[in-house]
Every structure is written in C-alpha cells, then in structure tokens.
Write a structure and sequence with these properties.
This protein is an all-alpha fold and about 60 residues long. The two termini are about 15 Å apart. The protein is built from 2 helices and no strands. The protein is about 85% helix and about 0% strand.
Length: about 60
C-alpha cells in the first residue's frame, strides 16, 4: 500500500505541471483564470510535500 501512496504523491506534481501549462497558455487572454490556475499549482505543490512528509512519518512509525 505504501508504494501506491508514493506514486500518488507524484500525481500532485503532474497536476501542478498541467495547471502551470494552462496558466501560461491562457495568460494573455484571461488573467483572472490564469491566477486561479496558479493558485492550483501552489496547492498541488503543497499537497505533494505534505503527503510525502505524512507518508514518511507513517512508515517510520510502523517499522
């Protein structure tokens, strides 16, 4: 189960890359929408580090 969570962490980075791509793509047309995508980038990166820290704590506690 731990491997599943390890791979799922990287899904957050993929989402962040996608949202960053979308923000850059629509930057000239819709600034407000681009800001929302940049907010999602920040949340996805935060979730990556949060989940990684939580998983590592959980693995060390169960050793």
């Amino acid at each position: 189960m731990s491997k599943f969570f390890k791979y799922f962490e990287y899904a957050y980075l993929l989402f962040a890359a996608f949202f960053l791509f979308e923000a850059v793509r629509i930057w000239n047309d819709q600034h407000q929408r681009a800001y929302v995508f940049l907010f999602f980038v920040a949340i996805a990166i935060f979730m990556f580090f949060f989940k990684r820290r939580f998983r590592r704590r959980y693995e060390e506690r169960n050793k």
